[in-house]
Amino acid sequence: MSVLTVSGSPHIHGDASVKKIMYTVVYAMVPAMLVSVYFFGLDALRVLVISSLACLFFEWLIQKYLIKGPVSVNDGSALVTGVLLAFNVPTNLPVWILIIGAFVSIGMAKMSFGGLGKNPFNPALVGRIFLLISFPVQMTTWPAPRALFGNLPAYPDALSGSTPLGYLKEGLKTSTVPELFETMPGMLMDFIGYIGGSLGEVSAAALLIGAAYMFYKRVITWEIPTAYIGSVVIFSGILWLVNPDAYANPLFHLLTGGLILGAFYMATDMVSSPISSRAQIIFGIGCGVITILIRIWGAYPEGVSFAIVIMNAFTPLLNKGFKPKRFGERLKAA
Amino acid sequence: MAMLKTFKLGGVHPPENKLSAGRAIEVLPLPEQAFIPLNQNLGAPGVPLVQKGEQVKTGQLIAKGEAFISSNVHSSVSGKVLKIDDLMDPSGYRRPSVVIQVEGDEWVPSIDRSETLVRNISLSQKEIIEKIHEMGIVGLGGATFPSHVKLMVPAGKKAEVLIINGVECEPYLTADHRLMLEKGAEILVGTSILMKGLGVERAIIGIENNKPDAISNMSELSKSFQGITIVPLRVKYPQGGEKQLIKAVTGREVPSGKLPIEVGAVVNNVGTAFAVYEAVQKNKPLFERVVTITGKSLKEPGNYLVRTGTPISMLIEKAGGLPDDTGKIIGGGPMMGKALLSTEIPVVKGSSGILILRKNESKRVPVIHCIRCARCVSACPMGLEPLLLAQYAQQEMWDDCERERVMDCIECGSCHYTCPSGRPLLDYIRLGKFRVGQIIRNRGKN
Fold it and tell me: Is the model's pLDDT at A332 over the cut of 70?
């Protein structure tokens, strides 16, 4: 008889793997990729391909020649970072800047901390913030969306080169919110993605389809997105009720900028978000509050990336302070 | 339909693979030699009462459990004692065992071998406990805790409800399922005996709803028994865990480090209830039990009534022989069972099943970095953070292990099962429990 294997229990393993999780996220981003190509054409495709390839390349290079350890570029995590980074930049970003972004994301934010699972911050967001600070002009000049086919109303000239959030922020210096809204394409267009912006922040609809897929596959849980979006809606809603001339309504905050992308795809990053359900809710609320603070009173029109990275920094503290509910806890206190 | 009850925190859904559920219990023929370990219970081993060369009968007491947490051992066969020697038991260690050359099958005459159901319980509460002690009954769910000890409620505590575990949440295993189908009335009488022994008016039998036939059979039969309710439960592993089952059927949570009696509950397995019936009503010691033999490559998975001390090789032969692609043999289920070192290990009181895994099912997946996905946290039925406990144990940070409640771990394996990085979380947590346990015991000495 052959030799028997002996090991501790359990003797069976579920079918989950890191690779499956990562590729689920990649598949979830496909609808948003398609919409971005629809509105921004080959430029979008170029940014997606170069960002992904650059991230994969840098991970391979660092693992093979700097760390000299096992190479795991095919686990899908670098690809997720690549696509997310592409989602966070304008489609007309020069290629060399994009490659620097990929290098910062993978090299600085991920591999220097020990690679997958060790990074305290979301790598793609670190890359984006680095680019935003280093190349503010290139990072905030957006092309106007131009549908590849179909019959959409002409895109207002006033908005070209800007995002709805940027347009609003700039316009509020001289006008009121309702006046500015009249010159914009409207909420439905915001929802399908007929607006200026980075690849991944344009179409809330496509992102929500992907998010539903991630929920179904149990790659994300409800806590962070719900707390994040909920707090944005409540916070911006209060301001809007107080003064609708000075503050945009919650739906506008929901559908524009990177909120949907951030709340479902980036704040939920397993590595850099907290463990327990309670800590995740606080994390989400923190993201939401900081987002609105920056959008309304900050120097930037958009605050999602900063909000998530700031809350990433609080993750270890939240993990320490908010433990999961232990079995038998309630009675012990009694 | 109303939502079925289950426990709240954590849990996983491994594939059920109840291959032998449709196979009625058959009697396994006697072995040529029986290898009966003197320690088949949690606690101290029995002290041998027989000597080499002595003739014994089936059901004869051969070792006495003298310590408080200890249990009597009876011969499962009749014949001649060949030797008392250290032989490998399912734990993998060599421990004192009585080897008996089987000659015929002559039972101790006081055992009632008839099939007639005896419903009337004539023994008093005290006599019941003594009888259960005398007959060497231990918990047959796997933990093998001496049953008479469970019935002795500590001073200051009060038992309110008896819970009978018919969950059988381990994949593959079907012994309890078959017992509930074929010996339902006996289980219910056993339950009534345990109720009397414990001094409670109420008993709940929890059964997962992947066994609808068992639920309906037990519900039908229970109508003529006072105070016994059958509660169907939504399938979720590890519902058969004592604390999880209590939570599922009563909503009460046993506090950390405490026993079920803290919330007025005592839990026994259906197999134990059956053994109690036989012990009290039929005067029969515990020397045989139902064992599932199963595995995807086995020709004929099934359920057998097996005498303790029978080598598992006999069960495997009965199921069509050991498949060529065998990679691992497990005593118990795939989630909490123990990998066995050979096919000559005997069936003991705690053997609920023998599972033969194929080679490709036996290997663990490659281990990579933790990605902090927290699936182990969501899966943990005790609300622990397995990723953290494993990390602390790996780095020998025992104080942190203790503070994060490593001792609460019930070793159900849900964390390791669910980990996408394939990390052997439970291996490390077991190490942590072992070391923290030592530290706590030493603290008591100073």
Answer: no
**CB of A253 closer than 8 Å to CB of A229:** no
Instruction: Confirm or reject contact between B429 and chain A (CB < 8 A).
Output: no
The first and second tokens of residue B412, run together, are: 């159900």
User: What is the ipTM score, two decimals?
Assistant: 0.90
Same domain, B333 and B247: yes
Whole-number Cα distances in Å, A101 to A63, A72, A131, A138, A328: 18, 21, 6, 13, 48
Residue B340, CA distances (Å) to B100, B172, B298, B306, B353 in order: 22, 17, 17, 18, 12
CA-based R_g, chain A, Å: 21
**Is residue B373 predicted with pLDDT exceeding 50?**
yes
Q: Of A241, A236, A239, give the one whose Cα is nearest residue A256.
A: A236
Q: Which of B363, B396, B423 is the last residue of a domain?
A: B363
Q: To the nearest whole angstrom, how far is the Cα of B42 from the nearest Cα of chain A?
A: 19
CA-nearest residue to A6 within chain B is: B339
User: Domain check: are B296 and B270 in the same one?
Assistant: yes
Contacts of B373 in chain A (CB under 8 A): 21, 270
Residue where a domain terminates, one of B329, B363, B397: B363
Structural domain span for residue B250: 1-8+18-28+112-363
Percentage of chain B surpassing pLDDT 70? 99
Q: Which pLDDT score, from 0 to 100, does residue A235 have?
A: 96
Q: What is the CATH number of the domain that holds B252?
A: 3.40.50.11540
Cβ contacts of A13 on chain B, cutoff 8 Å: 364-365, 416-417, 419, 422
Same domain, B413 and B341: no
B89 pLDDT higher than 60: yes
Same domain, B428 and B296: no
B222, B211 in Cβ contact below 8 A? Answer: no
Q: What is the pLDDT of residues B220-239, one digit of tens each?
A: 999 999 999 999 999 999 99
CA distance B295 to B400: 40
